Description:
Elements: H1 18-39, E1 40-41, E2 46-47, E3 50-54, E4 57-61, H2 65-80, H3 89-99, H4 106-119, H5 124-130, H6 136-139, H7 141-144, H8 148-165, H9 172-184, H10 201-206, E5 209-211, H11 213-229, H12 232-248, E6 258-260, E7 265-268, E8 272-273, H13 274-292, H14 297-305, E9 318-319, E10 324-325, E11 328-330, H15 333-344, E12 358-360, H16 365-375
Amino acid sequence: MPYAALRDTMLDCTLQTETDFKALRGQLIGLAARGLEDMFDFEKGLFCFRAKPIRHGTVKEGLSLRYTLISLLGLHRLENGGRTSAFDVQSAFNTLLKRSYSIDKIGDLGLLIWLCALVSPEQLTKICSAFDLERSLTRFQDARLGLTTELSWFLTGLCYSVLAAGDIKGDVNALIRYTYRLIRDNYAGQGIFRHSKRNSFQGMIRSRIGCFADQVYPIFGFTALAEAHGVKEAYDIALGCAKTLARLQGPLGQWWWHYDALTGKVLGKYPVFSVHQDAMAPMALLAIGDTSGVDFMPPVLKGMKWLLGSNELGHRMIDSSRNIIFRSLFTGRITKYSNGIRSLLRLNPAQTIYSDLQINHECRPYHLGWILYALAGKDNDFF
């Protein structure tokens, strides 16, 4: 079905019935596909860094290779799910490969391998040779810092590469096991991942703090590892983290921003990002839910309802007229950091009142890419 046929008629949807759920899914898929077309620079072959609303549409700012990788992952999932788009994903990927020499982060390399495994697995050996895959964990700074999100993208890419093409270069399975251990070492045993490893300078400062991204990407990567290699420990950790996130979800369905890895509690609530509500949480929780049989649909749907106006400001975050979804609800910097300190000192942060919430009206293409990856697959019929 052409994505243009999925235009939304459910602007007042309140997610009360199964029909409402299916309509919202169709709305988000259609909006994401149209929005990505608006955000693409067809001359340079890259998606923008962000789009900001103006009076009669949006204006694009910057270019991002990372956001292009994620957007193409989503568009491939859209096409694989039987829908069409304005993009030739294979051609866009081939153009992107010519720019991949600029990749200097393990996370971006992981996204590239992940995308290549799905779109063009015959090119995996060439890519892995070009980036000296076996030394990648020591060459890239984000790998040396042990950043959870970036290593999780790398782990996921490696898992998909083995599924697509076998042991593509050297002992990739050994690299998978080593990457897994690096991420696992950031798990403090309380259902929450740290942001980075503890023995770096950055790690000493942030050793007990993990953001929402630091939870969902290892959940997804560990689920892929468990399915591909039967690693029960990875499955147990992913399920434990998913259950912790669901337990800590806000009363309006908010997926909070920062967590304390040592206590397994919320550390800082805002910003609340829309991409967490409609894309990243569904992608991770439904993956581990499908593997484990645990039903994560109630918290997923509660989180998506937040977009429709069931949020702190009673404001819809979806702007169908511009094909964007507003990025977040955020609070002032002083409030944010003071509440973080209160949380660390256990000064009753649950009673904190946020009186300065605002909407960040920009939209970034990776958000729309993850929507498609989470919702548009042919095997993803959870609504």
